[in-house]
Design a protein that fits this description.
This protein is of the alpha+beta class. Helices cover 28% and strands 20% of the residues. The chain has an 8-stranded mixed sheet. Strands 9-14-11-12 form a 4-stranded antiparallel sheet, with no helix packed on it. Strands 8-16-15 form a 3-stranded antiparallel sheet. Keywords: Iron, Metal-binding, Oxidoreductase.
Length: 363
Amino acid sequence: MLASPILRSHVPGRFSLSKAHRCAFRGLATHASGFRIPVIDFNRYQIAASTDQRQETANEVVDGFKEAGFIYIKNHGIPDSVITNVFQKSASFFKLPEDVKSKLEWEDPRANRGYVQIGRERVTQSSDPDEIAAMRSKSPDYKETMEIGRDWDPVWRNRWPQESDCPGFKDTMLNFFQTCHELHVSVMSSIALGLSLNERFFDDKINEQYHNLRLLSYPPVKTEILRQEGQARAGAHSDYGTLTLLFQDSVGGLEVQNPHTGEFHPAVPIPGTIVINVGDLLSRWSNDILRSTLHRVVAPPAKQISETEQVTPARQSIAFFCNPDFGALIDCLPNCYGPDKAKKYEPVTTEQYIVQRLSETYL
């Protein structure tokens, strides 16, 4: 778990390091067990000085996804000011009265848009409705979210607050949605290159922008609640699509499972980086060569509020869940199977897989 003296932050998503910890902080992506989430300078791919440099960075990306399923990227091209503004607008939204937010309630897994109150979602790897219902009743995820999709969809509409309630919210999120999509395309191109495919292999399979921008708010919570059996801010799960771009604040709490040992390790916030992980559909596409790794959100260090009680701090994060086009057929990539490696999965469309998982996850 992240020790509180290492980071100081006054604005969500912005960090400062105490001088004594600067050197140690550079190595925080590697844990004592040897589990390592690599930090990759993605600018070396986007503005490569040579073909060799582009290939080298693409190989680093793919190697990270093969080993851990997670990477950090730095020099990714999204300005700090843009990310800070998104965090500020997100915080403003979650501060709205509950009756205002509830008018924007999430209603349909095919849409996957709108406000989700605390306790409604229970992320898990289970697909048994009764088991999920029991877990949700006993230990719901202690978070609230706002789900945003492509705004021009002909069927499913985003559920926006009134401009007067949250000024600038809609424009900020739409611009950020497009920015994240463009980064997704670039990272997928690097994956194609690292897998010895044509760099543009994925372009016509991810261009319809069936993504999900999720704003997350983890309110302060008494630690006695989080100590209950099975309780977490977000339970252990994998993501559903191709990639997830995660923007963390300085509080911490994300943990990633070491695929080799089953242990969970902190994916600590590193200033100026984005955490990226492989989702289920990209893992299926690659015949599990790229790992869709389990992860969870646990309680960061708590503050003592009485002789007998502690409370964890509030936490914010922004997740951009990248998906293939909903009609895209996810079948094993041509160079990920052969005589010595059979296909592990039947083909499935993006829509079939994601709607099924969302239907199981939400109440």
